[in-house]
Description:
Helices cover 29% and strands 22% of the residues. The chain has helices spanning 12-22, 35-40, 78-83, 85-90, 92-99, 104-107, 112-117, 146-149, 170-177, 273-279, 286-296, 308-326, and strands at residues 5-8, 26-29, 50-53, 63-66, 69-73, 181-186, 189-194, 199-200, 203-204, 211-217, 225-231, 242-251, 254-263, 270-271. The protein is globular. Residues 328-332 have low confidence and may be disordered. Flavin-adenine dinucleotide is lined by residues 27-35, 74, 101-102, 106, 109-111, 113-115, 117-118, 168-170, 211-212, 237, 239.
Amino acid sequence: MKLFEHHQVRSVTQAIRLLERYGGRAKLNAGGTDLLGLLKADVLPEYPEAVIDIKPIRNLKKIKLEKGLLKIGALVKLADLAESSLMRSQYPILAEAALRIGSPQLRNVATIGGNLCQDVRCWYYRYPCHIGGPILCLRKGGNTCPAVRGDHRYHAIMGGKGCMAVCPSDLATALSVYDAQVVISGPDGERNVLIMDFYYPLGYALQKNEMVKEVFLPPIPQSSKQKFIKFTLRKPIDFALVSVACLLGFKGDEVADARIALGAISPSPIRAYGAEKRLIGSPINETIVHEVAEIALRDTKPLSGNGYKVNIAKTLIKRVLADLRFNQKVDR
Ligand SMILES: Cc1cc2nc3c(=O)[nH]c(=O)nc-3n(C[C@H](O)[C@H](O)[C@H](O)COP(=O)(O)OP(=O)(O)OC[C@H]3O[C@@H](n4cnc5c(N)ncnc54)[C@H](O)[C@@H]3O)c2cc1C
Ligand code: SF4
């Protein structure tokens, strides 16, 4: 690692002040599970002058229900999300997505804020400096994306605007189904951004002097059925090749409320609004399930080497709908 200054802060205000002082040359450290690896391998486009440890900020570590809103502080750990009885009973998609991330060691340290703001997993971007990097690309001062003509088997099949890296955060996919908002704190106060709008082509909806304070989820429809499925190459610990989160409400046999989010296929999580619309008012049968999967993926534009993700996504959608219709088994 190179040298950097180190600060520990006890409040969001102190953190913001330091971010302002360093003007983009400082990095926040929450659990450090992504940041420390990036610093060790010297992956970041600019090495930070300072690291600001936000772990001591106590009021960012709570999950609470307030006037029907579920508020999750930025420093809530993935293990807390996975194990909380409130999350498992009312927001099982988020609990399951958290449980499917990494190992117990990782989940006991990593935070929701860090998960949402983790860096992309593109192998060109993460190519370490000490073995011949950096590889220049749009995120590192270059003019092109080497993944487009190179090996892009895990990259985006839709929504790429230059950079084809996918959003690596499973929690972002899960939160999309709940229409969650990210609460951003900065020198001028707070603002809220819908989770689907939090990801920009080359970064996040965060200014250099802003940080994520919490995430809140509006109330969900009563008695909805929910499911999260993640397709990975390795079972125990792996990033998603494709993930699907789905929430359905039924009136008799007909779907009254439908929300479908797709993860790991685009630089931001995607809500399949067209597919949701097709489901509403219909019973779930083979024809509808097939149609819905086609609609959900109709806008994809895979690169030459990642078209296989389209078929995986369609299959996951069909599975999730069938499972929610006929049973509520949680898929591990
Ligand atoms: C082996 C392994 C497997 C993994 N598998 C998965 C997986 O399957 N799915 C998945 O989603 N993730 C996966 N991850 C990523 C993991 O979830 C993240 O590393 C972790 O969630 C980051 O949280 P953290 O608190 O450690 O963040 P840190 O490493 O502390 O920070 C990550 C980034 O977010 C910024 N940041 C942190 N907190 C804030 C905040 N409050 N406001 C603004 N910026 C902030 C930091 O400055 C840094 O840039 C995996 C990681 C590893 C190492
Ligand atoms: S996909 Fe994005 S991060 Fe990867 S090489 Fe292309 S521009 Fe860089």
